[in-house]
Design goal:
This is ABC transporter ATP-binding protein. The protein is built from nine helices and ten strands. The chain is an alpha/beta fold. α4 runs antiparallel to α5.
């Protein structure tokens, strides 16, 4: 079963159109969402979650129509979106006390485990946290109600290389039993080479390609220069695609 199926997702703004985005994620998979700044990645995530109202298209989560089952679906997802902040003078413990009331399956033992894993002090105020620690805290919240699907916008942004690698390892552990799936957007394409199963590429508001990672990379090898050997990385694929105005 697909944990997510996006079909024909469209959102129109005066100066930008997200047009006919279609992709799906099976259970137990990690999908990376890539594209330049302003390509439509965050708009896609927000439209999927009905945080901005799509003009067209359908979203299914866990085999159910998302709009008709929004409350139930949101009990089973964990979301970390960029640009969302907390009250700077509140302690982590206070924010958690408010947040956990929204989730029927909140697991306090799991939450405490993730606090330890991420070295988070619940008595610290938000203003005392680095950008990386804020990201870790939001991920701890997202993981503490047994979410079956994680939607993450730039989750490794602001983390040092060691913390990033630890987090990617955690992602792989989370999907290992086949019961969870992860969708995350990132500019750090090397992270996706380490942990993603599938890649979806949005360019200028349109879906360029969505495929299993190895098949995705193989489909762009024609961008290599004559005589160039070795496989192109995701970063090289993005740079050459954007600069060459390549389209499918």
């Amino acid at each position: 079963m697909n944990v997510l199926a996006v079909e024909g997702l469209t959102k129109r703004y005066p100066n930008f159109v997200l047009e006919n985005i279609t992709f799906s994620i099976p259970k137990g998979r990690i999908m990376g969402l890539i594209g330049k700044n302003g390509a439509g990645k965050s708009t896609t995530l927000k439209a999927m979650l009905n945080l901005v109202r799509p003009d067209e298209g359908s979203i299914q989560m866990f085999g159910k129509d998302f709009k008709e089952n929004e409350e139930n679906c949101k009990q089973n997802i964990g979301v970390v979106l960029g640009g969302i902040d907390f009250y700077n003078h509140k302690k982590i413990a206070q924010i958690t006390d408010s947040t956990k009331r929204f989730y029927k399956n909140w697991d306090e033992a799991a939450y405490q485990k993730y606090l330890q894993t991420f070295s988070l002090d619940p008595q610290k105020k938000v203003k005392e946290l680095s950008t990386g620690m804020k990201v870790k805290y939001m991920i701890a919240l997202a993981l503490s109600h047994h979410a079956k699907f994680l939607i993450l916008d730039e989750p490794t942004s602001g983390l040092d290389p060691v913390s990033r690698d630890d987090l990617l390892g955690l992602f792989r552990q989370l999907v290992r039993d086949g019961e969870r799936s992860i969708l995350f957007s990132t500019h750090i394409t090397s992270d996706l080479e380490k942990c993603a199963d599938d890649i979806t590429y949005i360019k200028g508001g349109k879906l360029l390609r969505s495929a299993e990672k190895n098949a995705f990379i193989e489909s762009f090898q024609h961008l290599k220069e004559p005589g160039e050997t070795g496989e192109l990385t995701l970063e090289e694929i993005m740079i050459r695609t954007e600069r060459s105005h390549y389209d499918i």
